[in-house]
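Q: Convert this sequence to structure tokens.
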Amino acid sequence: MSLEFHRAVENMEIWSATGDGFSFVITYESPAGAGFHGRAGYVASWRPLYGGNGAIKIGGSAFVSLAEAEKACNTMLGHLTGCR
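A:
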């Protein structure tokens, strides 16, 4: 199953998707300006949908492109669902 990301907050660089009991979020960060601050690029994270656990950053973040971050999320979903 491939995750289908959608813009979660209008006028902000935040995308989200859910699949197989997991929630994924991608944000765009930059060192300065409006929005999230950090190393420039797309930061991806995941957490279980249920259980109230905090998000876990996906290794390799920050990614250069949104497509690269989406691919990392899909790879992580495959790993998570393969571990069941």
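Residues 66-82 form the longest helix (17 residues).
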